[in-house]
Specification:
The protein is 79% helix and 0% strand. It has 28 helices and no strands. The chain is elongated, with a radius of gyration of 45 Å.
Length: 489
C-alpha cells in the first residue's frame, strides 16, 4: 500500500513543471520514505532531485539516518554524491559523531576509521578529506599513515607518497616513510622501499633507514639492492660503515665478487685496505693463492698488503710454485717479512735437493744472519748429498762474507781509536754480519765513553739490535757516568 502510494506521489511530483516546486515535492517523498525506513528507495528518489541545494539536504539527512541505523558504509557512499563542500564536511562530521557514540571512542578515532573505510574502497581523495577533519598532530598523522599503508598494500605507490606528504610534522612523516620502507623491503620490493626512503627529509633518519635496508637486503642475499642502498647514503662515514657490514655479510656467504663491489664504495683508506686484506684471506682459503694474489695487489697500505702477501707466497710455495712464490715474496716491502718468506723458500728448495734454486733465493735475503744461515744450510745439505764442489763454493762465500765483516769491524775500532768517530759510526752501520756489527758498535761505544762523549756513546749503544750486547754497553756507559759523578763530589 505504502509502495503504491509512494509511486503515485513520485509521479505527481515529477509532473510538476516548476523546478523548485518539483524539488520540494520530491524532498517530501524522501522524508516519508526515510521515516518509513525505506532508505534505499529514498536514495533513489533523492538522486532525481535537480536542485543541488535541496538534493544535498535530502542526501545529508539520509546519511545521518543510515548512520543511526549502524549502516556506516551506506552513509559514507552517499558523501561523494554531495555537491556543496560545506555540506560534505558537515555530513561526514555528523556521521563520525554518531560512529564515536556507538563505538564509544574519540571523534578523532571515528574520523580515522571512516578515512580507513574510504581507503579500503581505494577512494583516497575522500580518505584524505576525512583525515583533514582531524586536528593536526599525532592523531591526524596516524590516520594518514593508516591510509598510506592501505594504498601501499594495494600497490598504489603514487598515492602513498601523496598521502604522506600531507603529514605536517617532518619527523612523523619520516617515521611513516621508514616503516613503509621496512615493510616493502620484507616484501622484496627493493626499488619501492628505496623510493620511500629517498623521500625522507631528515638526512640522519634517511641514512639510518638506508643502512637498515642495506642490511636486510644483504641478509636476504639481494646484494645488488643492498649496494644501491649503500650508494644512496650521502655522508661518507655512515656509507663506509654500511659498506663494511655488507662486505662482512657477502664474505661470510662466499659472495666474493659482491664483497669486492662493496669495497669500491669505501672511501676511508684504512678501512678499505683492511677489507681488501680480509677478502684476499677468505679467497686464499676458499679458492687459492692465484685468485687471492690480484686482490692483495689492490691494497695500498703497505702493512696490510705485506700481511696477506706472506701467506699467499707460502701457499704458492706449498703447492710447488717456486718461481711465483719468489716473485710474490719480493713484492713484500717489510724487510723482516720478506726475509722470513724467502727463508721458507730456501727451506723448501733444500727439501727438494734443489741447491741452485736455494742459492739463487739466498741472494735476495737482506738480513746477513739469515743469509749466512741459509748459505750454511745449503753447504751442509750439499755436502751430505755428496755435492762436495757446490758445498765448498758456498763455504768459501760464507768465509768471505764473515772475513769482510770482521775486517770492517777492525776498521771501526781503528777509526775510533784515532778520534774519527763519524767515519767509525758510518762504517759500523754498513756491516751486515750481526755478531761483527755488535762487536764494532761495542768497541765504538767504549771508545766514546772513555773520551767523555757520553751522549754519543748512549746513542750508538741504542742502535745495537742484540739485547744482551745493548744492555752490556748501556751498563758500561752508566758505570762510567756514576764514577764521574762520584769524583765530582
Amino acid at each position: 500500500m505504502l509502495e503504491a502510494l509512494s509511486d503515485l506521489l513520485l509521479q505527481d511530483a515529477l509532473a510538476i513543471e516548476d523546478t523548485f516546486g518539483r524539488a520540494f515535492a520530491l524532498n517530501e517523498i524522501v522524508d516519508r520514505l526515510i521515516a518509513a525506513g525505506r532508505h534505499a528507495q529514498a536514495l533513489q528518489v533523492a538522486q532525481t532531485i535537480e536542485d543541488t541545494f535541496v538534493r544535498d539536504c535530502s542526501l545529508c539527512e539520509l546519511m545521518l539516518r543510515y548512520a543511526e541505523a549502524g549502516q556506516y558504509d551506506q552513509a559514507l557512499q552517499i558523501a561523494p554524491t554531495l555537491t556543496d563542500p560545506s555540506v560534505q564536511t558537515h555530513s561526514l562530521s555528523e556521521v563520525a559523531l554518531k560512529y564515536a557514540a556507538a563505538q564509544r571512542c574519540a571523534p578523532a578515532a571515528a574520523l580515522s576509521a571512516i578515512a580507513g573505510r574510504y581507503a579500503a574502497w581505494q577512494q583516497y581523495a575522500w580518505a584524505l578529506q576525512v583525515s583533514q577533519l582531524i586536528d593536526a598532530g599525532p592523531a591526524q598523522a596516524q590516520a594518514l599513515r593508516q591510509i598510506a599503508g592501505q594504498a601501499a598494500a594495494a600497490a598504489h605507490h603514487e598515492q602513498v607518497l601523496q598521502i604522506l606528504s600531507q603529514i605536517e610534522s617532518a619527523e612523523l612523516r619520516d617515521c611513516a616513510l621508514a616503516d613503509l620502507a621496512a615493510q616493502a623491503s620484507k616484501a622484496d620490493q627493493a626499488a619501492w622501499a628505496l623510493q620511500l626512503v629517498e623521500a625522507m627529509a631528515d638526512p640522519a633518519s634517511q641514512t639510518q633507514a638506508l643502512a637498515e635496508l642495506a642490511n636486510h637486503n644483504a641478509a636476504a642475499g639481494h646484494y645488488s639492492q643492498a649496494l644501491q642502498c649503500v650508494q644512496a647514503i650521502a655522508a661518507a662515514a655512515p656509507r663506509d660503515t654500511a659498506a663494511q657490514q655488507l662486505i662482512h655479510c657477502a664474505l661470510n656467504a662466499g659472495h666474493f665478487e659482491q664483497g669486492l663491489r662493496a669495497i669500491q664504495l669505501v672511501q676511508d683508506a684504512e678501512q678499505k685496505a683492511t677489507a681488501l686484506q680480509a677478502t684476499a684471506q677468505r679467497i686464499l682459503e676458499a679458492i687459492g693463492w692465484e685468485a687471492a694474489h690480484p686482490i692483495a695487489q689492490m691494497i695500498d697500505a703497505v702493512e696490510c698488503r705485506d700481511s696477506i702477501l706472506q701467506p699467499i707466497a707460502s701457499r704458492a710455495l706449498a703447492e710447488g710454485h717456486w718461481h711465483q712464490a719468489l716473485q710474490i715474496a719480493q713484492d713484500v716491502q717489510d724487510v723482516a717479512r720478506r726475509d722470513s718468506t724467502l727463508q721458507q723458500v730456501v727451506t723448501r728448495a733444500l727439501e727438494a735437493c734443489s741447491w741452485d734454486r736455494a742459492f739463487q733465493v739466498t741472494q735476495h735475503i737482506h738480513n746477513a744472519s739469515i743469509r749466512t744461515w741459509a748459505l750454511t744450510e745449503i753447504a751442509f745439505k750439499a755436502a751430505a748429498a755428496g755435492h762436495s764442489n757446490q758445498a765448498l763454493q758456498v763455504a768459501k762465500l760464507i768465509e768471505q762474507n764473515l772475513s769482510d765483516a770482521r775486517a770492517s769491524a777492525e776498521l771501526v775500532v781503528k777509526y775510533a781509536a784515532t778520534g774519527q768517530y763519524d767515519r767509525a759510526i758510518e762504517i759500523a752501520h754498513l756491516i751486515e754480519d750481526g755478531p761483527s756489527k755488535a762487536h764494532a758498535l761495542a768497541e765504538l761505544t767504549l771508545k766514546l765513553a772513555a773520551a767523555g762523549h757520553y751522549c754519543r756513546a748512549l746513542q750508538v749503544a741504542q742502535t745495537v739490535q742484540e739485547p744482551s750486547s745493548k744492555a752490556s754497553m748501556l751498563a758500561e756507559v752508566a758505570r762510567r757516568l756514576a764514577w764521574l759523578g762520584a769524583l765530582s763530589r
